[in-house]
Each structure stands twice: as C-alpha cells, then as structure tokens.
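Q: I'm writing up a methods section and want to include an example of the input and output format. Could you take the sequence below and give the corresponding predicted structure tokens, formatted cleanly so I can copy it straight into the document?
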Amino acid sequence: MGRFNLSKGERFKIAKSDGLSKIKVVLDWDSDADLDASTFLCGDEGVILDDAGFVFYNSENREKPFDRAVYGNKRRWMAETRPMSSDGAVLGSLDDRDGDSGEQIDVNLDKVDPNVCEIVFVVSIHDEGKTFGDVEGASISVVNAENGEELCRYELAETFTEETALSVAKLVVNEDGDWEFEAVGVGHVGGLETLIDIYAS
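A: Here is the clean output for your methods example:
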C-alpha cells in the first residue's frame, strides 16, 4: 500500500479487514517555538467522555504509575513517562520543549473505548507571542506501527496568521465500523484553552 496524500476534508480508510490496528500518528513541523501535540477522545456529542480522554503533556494519567522510589518526584515522572488515555488506546508524546521537530502519538485501535467515535489530533503553541504564522512545514502522517510503512500524509497548505492552536486531523468511525483518518486543518485563536473549550466542555 503506497502513501496517500490527503487534502483538507479528505479521508483515508483504515479497514479492519487489513488487520491494521496499531498505528503511529506523526506530527512534524519546523519552528523554534515550543509546540505541543494533544489528543481528544470524543463521544458522539463531540466532547471527551472523561478527563483522561484529553491526552496531553501535563496529564497525570500516564503509561506508568508514579513510584517515588523510581522517579524521586512527580516532575521527573511526568518528564519520563507518556500521557495515556483511560482506555490505554492512545499514548501521547513526551514533552519536547526544544521545538524544531514534531511529536509522535501511538494509537491501538483495538483498545479504543466503544463509546469513542472521534480521536482528534491537535497542536498548540506554548510560547507567548508566537503563532502558527511562525511555523513552517506542518504535516501529519499515519504510519503502520508494525512495519513502519507510511499510509497517508496531510501537509497543511493553509496560511495561518494569529492562530495559536490547530485542529490538525481526526480519526472517525464510519458507518461500517471502520476507522477513517480525516484531514481537518482548522486554526484557532486562544491556544490550548480554546481547544479545551471546544472538545472538553
């Protein structure tokens, strides 16, 4: 299966019949700003089902429980472990404050809570005074976690100016019960707080 290049609004089907359940969602960009990738696991109302449905760098729902003997303190625990959704289906990225490159999110579609029908991938700018007008080469791709094959890619061609957050793409369940990856590419003013208002209210 060769790579499929998506335009805004287009979808790529991830069929159960292909045996594809473990994927990596890779967000890339070129910027010296601190950008953070987050994920919202939403029900049919378009909002998260519980707090751990918001997978982001500062979430206390992590892949490993806090152990003082191992980590010493919670700051180190947060720095060395990845955020995780309550169903264990989504593993967020470690927080990379150096900017420059992107972040990777791991998704196991077999583990997704059956009440979740959308998994939304977003990026926000942490640095004050920076916007997506300062970011170049933004893209998101879906990779088969089993063999490393890139399945599809969406390169954001939109022009952004004052936006400080992006709804980049989402996984949605279609009428056949299969997942589809949809290119969204919608910018928002207000950073991460605006995204929380949209998907967690």
